[in-house]
Amino acid sequence: MQSNLPEKLNIARTLCANYHMSMKKHELNLKSQLCHRLYIASNAMTRSYKPLLDEIGLSYPQYLVMMALWEEDKISMSELATVTYIDTGSLTLVVKKMADKGLLKIVNGEEDKRKKFIHLTSQGANLQKRAIDIPEKMKCKLVSLDSAEIEGAFSLLDKLNHDLTNS
């Protein structure tokens, strides 16, 4: 399957070139734009999370940080930025607020004091028990999608992210 990837990329590039040559004015409509559909879906997803996250006192970026730390505690700030895809400037503010809430600690590296490590506190670790049902509650909101379509969405979004970050 991977061996066909260069051929598929060449076909995709040819199709894109042909598409751009034949672009018509109506193709500039919002309803024709994948980016706009993704923007709408992203906003709807984040809004759907809000009441669930309000119950446990987290914003969506804070929830991403907590999920990353529940998966692997005591990681560096740069590792946390990599796994959450939150830019380091924004992540610093998010982590600081969470430290002020007592959910985590920011610890200087032993070898390099400039390097920061993020550690869950017991309060932060215990919050996982209150958050455990959130993914299932979100899946229940996707009433028009079955499990296979949800898995297909993961696959499509992974391909989209790959293509856009590697082009």
Description of the molecule:
By secondary structure, this protein is mainly α. The protein has a domain at 32-132: Arc Repressor Mutant, subunit A, CATH 1.10.10. The protein contains eight helices and three strands. It has helices spanning 5-21, 34-54, 60-71, 77-84, 88-100, 122-131, 134-141, 147-165; strands spanning 75-76, 104-108, 116-120. The chain has a three-stranded antiparallel β-sheet. Strand 2 and strand 3 form a beta hairpin. Helix 2 crosses helix 7. The longest helix has 21 residues, at 34-54. The model has no long low-confidence stretch (mean pLDDT 90).
- Which class of secondary structure composition applies to the elements? mainly alpha
Topology as H/E string?
HHHEHHEEHHH
Major sheet summary line:
3 strands, antiparallel
Whole-number mean pLDDT: 90
Helix percent reads 55-70%
**Rg:** 20 Å
CATH architecture of the domain at 32-132: Orthogonal Bundle
